Amino acid sequence: MVPEPELGPFPAEEPPTAPRRRATPVVKESEPPVQVAANDASAATLAIGALSAGGEDTTHTSQQAVDLINAVLKRIGALSSQIASAQKKEVRQARNYLDQAQKALRTGDAEGAHTLATKANLLMDEVEKK
Is the pLDDT of residue 59 over 90? Predict the structure, then answer.
């Protein structure tokens, strides 16, 4: 018969460690930045300019977007049929940007419309180079 091996005490299992908690960052209240102006009128103008909703600027940007959309549409219309067919994918993408720009104008996003029209314009620059 084979003698049974002697078994000593089992090693104690290490107790599970609790997950470490991160310290909550301390939020300090900071003072608003101080604006220094030569006189009270310029300080008021600076504050108003910073908080302005941009009524006149939005109208100007909107008009720029409309003008750019129309200019790119004319460029697309002026393409020769040979270039238009050779660069069909790029022309389609430019038209897509213009459609999105017009939708952005209808929703009141003049800045987005101008950005999209600019993308279409740059794409047409590439098409005309080739």
Answer: no
What is the average pLDDT value for the chain, to the nearest integer?
76
pLDDT tens, position by position, 104-125: 999 999 999 999 999 999 999 9
Is residue 125 within 8 A of residue 68, CB to CB? The reply is no
Distance CA 81, CA 89 (A): 14
Collapsed DSSP state (helix, strand, coil) of residue 100: helix
Contacts with 87 (C-beta within 8 Å, 6 or more apart), sequence order: 79, 127, 130
How many of the other CB atoms lie within 10 Å of CB of 105? 19
Q: What is the rounded CA–CA span in Å between residue 46 and residue 53?
A: 14
- Helix 88-106 with 110-129: angle, nearest 10 deg: 170
| 7 dihedral zone (left: phi>0; alpha: psi -120 to 50; beta) | beta
pTM over 0.70: no
